[in-house]
Amino acid sequence: MREILPLLFALTTAASAQQQAYRFGHVWDGEKLLANAVVTVENGRIVRVEAASTAASSVTGARDMTRYTAIPGLIDVHTHMTYVLPASLNKIAQPARSAAAVYLARENARKTLETGVTTVRDLGARDYQDIAMRDLINQGAMPGPRMFVAGYGLMISRGPSPGPGTADGPAEVMKIVRLQSAAGADVIKMYGSTGSGQDVTGFETFTYEEMKAAVDAAHALGKRIAIHTYGPAGARDAIRAGTDSLEHSTDMDDATIAELARRRIVYVPTIDHNRYYVDNAKLLGYPPGATEPLNDFIARNLETARRAFKAGVRFAMGSDAVYTMFGENTRELRWFVKAGMTPEQALRAATTEGAALLGMEEKLGRLKPGAFADIVAVEGDPLQDIEVVIQKVRWVMKGGEVVVDKTK
Fold it and tell me: Same domain for 95 and 39?
């Protein structure tokens, strides 16, 4: 027994040495606010969240973060991480541009982490660049947020040379959904209307039958599906078809919004991405006059979001970040507050609701035992002022590893 005791002590000491404790002025755990609390982390997971007055063992050696409020790592449920400015690839030989895009996307990943976003849902990329980037991040070969990816988004035929995501008719739709899943996609993306960049037309593309085929095929494979639709017609059919999330939709009537709320489908309005296009029209090469339709769409998008929130629709934060928008991922929260949310409700859209949409309620979006140790420290009170979340991120931990530290 005497020989065993030193060994047990050594093992216990080694285990406890892996624990890290952080004492914050406040902790918002996704549900409630705790004052003067300690978060203990071990092996990339949260072990305890407790008041400092009752955490004697954890406080010993805890890092003093009492200047900050801790919130869960934020979740951006609509990005395109591998989108880099085309000019960045012009001097790269054509066959190698896909690999170069993944390499250059490291900067997008770094900027995303700096906003406090530790998890993203990436909704479409060329040549399965998103799958490569996800896997590189998971292997530790590239720093970046945790990624849930879609591969190719489904599109109708738009020319003589169909792409890998092209599908016409329910049978082809089901086939392409299965191909994306087989390639390694975590989620399915479908472009249910026109609309992208300076184009805000929103004409429905896929039929209801095609959308239903995509939804059924995705769900049969255990995948969730996001349907992009700028206009109200596509939104009605996407909701009827049973999409898991509705991206961008504006001008929805009261009946459509009521059905969206009844079905508990998550609305991802991505209002801020058109603000980005307006602010960067020259950089993106938009012609004169392109910003007026974008500004009009922003106003209608915000009004639709306001009505949807009032009707009890579920929201998640999606930036639709592309090109140089990374680092601005959380500005969507400002629009949520304009739509009528309190800062805390907006924060839930970026944490607990995002986690639920991903099917990761037990691991993401909350600071609780067993969840991934994704922790963001902000300076100020995020439940009173959403700008604290947008502008005052000082420290970010992802999976137990500090990836951003601006506290020193």
Answer: no
Do 232 and 88 fall into the same domain?
yes
CA distance 127 to 351: 30
Residues 253 and 348 in one domain: yes
Within a 10 A sphere around the Cβ of 310, how many other Cβ atoms?
12
> Would the pLDDT of 365 be above 70?
yes
Pairing of strands 146-149, 117-122: parallel
Instruction: Kindly report the length of the chain.
Output: 408
Are 182 and 34 found together in one domain? no
- The reply to whether 61 and 79 lie within a common domain is no
The answer to whether residues 273 and 321 touch, using CB atoms and an 8 Å cutoff, is yes
**Total structural domains in the chain?**
2
According to DSSP H, which parts of 206-270 are helical? 208-220, 232-241, 254-262
344 three-state secondary structure: helix
Using one digit for the tens of pLDDT, what is the confidence trace for 124-166?
999 999 999 999 999 999 999 999 999 999 999 987 778 899 9
CB 143 within 8 A of CB 132: no
User: Would you call 213 helix, strand, or coil by DSSP?
Assistant: helix
96 with 50: CB under 8 angstroms?
Answer: no
Segment 204-251, tens digit of pLDDT:
999 999 999 999 999 999 999 999 999 999 999 999 999 999 999 999
pLDDT digits (tens, 9 = 90+) for 7-53: 433 433 344 447 999 999 999 999 999 999 999 999 999 999 999 88
Structure tokens, 407: 């506290």
Range of the domain at 66: 17-73+365-405
Residues 153 and 133 in one domain: yes
Q: Is residue 7 part of a domain?
A: no
How many Å apart are CA 79 and CA 14, to the nearest integer?
Answer: 40
* Helix, strand and coil in the chain, % to nearest 5: 40, 25, 40
Sole residue written with tokens 């029209």: 281
Q: Are residues 256 and 351 in the same domain?
A: yes
Closest CA relative to residue 49, chosen from 64, 60, 33, 73: 33
Instruction: Evaluate if residue 69 carries a pLDDT over 90.
Output: yes
Question: Within this chain, do residues 387 and 281 fall inside the same structural domain, yes or no?
Answer: no
